[in-house]
Amino acid sequence: MGIQRTAWHESDQLTELSAEFTGWRIGRGGSGHWWAVRGDELVRTPDVDELRARLYELGENR
What is the rounded distance in angstroms from the CA atom of residue 60 to the CA atom of residue 17? Predict the structure, then answer.
């Protein structure tokens, strides 16, 4: 996969996650880890699917 295609794919994932989990600031750091922040809650993981699963778990706890 080319660099440009990878960037578009990550951008699409960021857009989807932001729409799915309102109230969270979501991004991907230079270390390659995905992260999400809401208030004093922080979730950080190298896998986007794990990030999504953990955010769902946190949503259930609210």
Answer: 16
**CATH code where residue 32 lies:** 3.30.920
For 25-62, how does the pLDDT look when each residue is reduced to its tens digit (9 = 90+)? 999 998 899 999 999 999 999 999 999 999 999 987 66
The percent helix, strand, coil of the chain (3-state, each to 5) is: 50, 25, 25
In this structure, are strands 34-38 and 25-28 parallel, antiparallel, or unpaired?
Answer: antiparallel
Domain span at residue 21 reads 3-60
Report the number of distinct structural domains present in the chain: 1
Cα dihedral value 11, 36, 44, 7, nearest 10? 10
